[in-house]
Amino acid sequence: MSFPDSLNIPILRNIFHPSDFTEASAGAFAHALKTALMAHANLTILHVSSDGNTEWMEFPGVRAALERWGLLPMNSRRSDVAQLGIHVKKVQAVHQDPIESVTSYIAEHATDLIVLATDQSKGCLPWLSKSVAVPVARESRQMTLFIPKGVAGFVSSHDGSVSLTNILIPVTSRPPAQAALQAAVRMAYRLNRPVGVFTVLYVGEEGDLPDLHYSDMPGWQWDTVIKQGDVVDVICGTAEEIKADLIVMTTEGRHGFLDALRGSHSERVLRKAPCPLLAIPAGGFIASVLESEGQPIS
Questions:
Q1: By 3-state DSSP, what share of the chain in percent is helix, strand and coil, each rounded to 5?
Q2: Backbone dihedral angles phi then psi of residue 246, each to the nearest 5 degrees
Q3: Regions of the chain with pLDDT less than 70
Q4: Residues 116, 155: Cα–Cα separation, whole Å
Q5: Residues 6+ away with beta carbon under 8 Å from 134
Q6: Burial class (CB within 10 angstroms; exposed 0-12, middle 13-18, buried 19+) of 68
Q7: Rounded-to-integer distance, Cα 260 and Cα 249, Å
Q8: 19: which of 1, 93, 189, 214 is 20 to 30 A away, CA to CA?
Q9: What is the pLDDT of residue 14?
Q10: DSSP assigned state of 210
Q11: d(Cα 21, Cα 266) in Å, to the nearest integer?
Q12: For position 58, what pLDDT does the model report?
């Protein structure tokens, strides 16, 4: 077994979840809360209002969810949440432009992971619908977990249980894919999933498959699949075929998580994906940590 000791050390300290209080956001909230519990991290929930009239009771109920998941007793106190190793902050911003408000908040506050709900039925993604010329968006390089509307995802909103047994990792030589492989291993390890399959997918010629290191994960196996065709169609088709619970991809990331996804393979996959997508911008701090963890152990 070749687990590095660093897998026991959480690398996510601050998780950020913008919410519009819709049903789609409820699923994303469950994933954000579960991830915060997994990493013993800070969780910030942001709602942007144009008039500031939002009632605090409209925010997702953290204690209610934790009670429903059996992690807190009924009628728990706010202080009980901290005993689970997480700190939750709810923020209401008043702004006419939610995109600018979100990106400005990210620029001013440490963020390691963003958890967003998306709506695939619309012509554009809610959080990506505006031109992202805002400088702060181009500077951010945060890892982002997208939860499509209507997709249950791998975390149950009802009881907090996790169903993660098939992870699809599309790889290319550019951007480097090692961070995506290691993120998948970390996800399975931290969520304590006993069995599963990591499917590495390369679209192209077999001789061009990037050189990658596959970390051992007890109970999990690595499958490599090589196919030809349109990259996005092959990725989404393979995700359907293997009943993927999660797709993990690296993005160029040089202009931030919004620009990295706009018009890219990642965004196109996201529009059609049958499951959540974790996008990891190359060149960012988290990607660097993951790449170093994924090096062979001598």
A1: 35, 25, 40
A2: -160, 140
A3: 1-10, 49-59, 95-98, 120-141, 253-266, 294-298
A4: 14
A5: 99, 100, 103, 104
A6: middle
A7: 12
A8: 189
A9: 93
A10: P
A11: 25
A12: 61
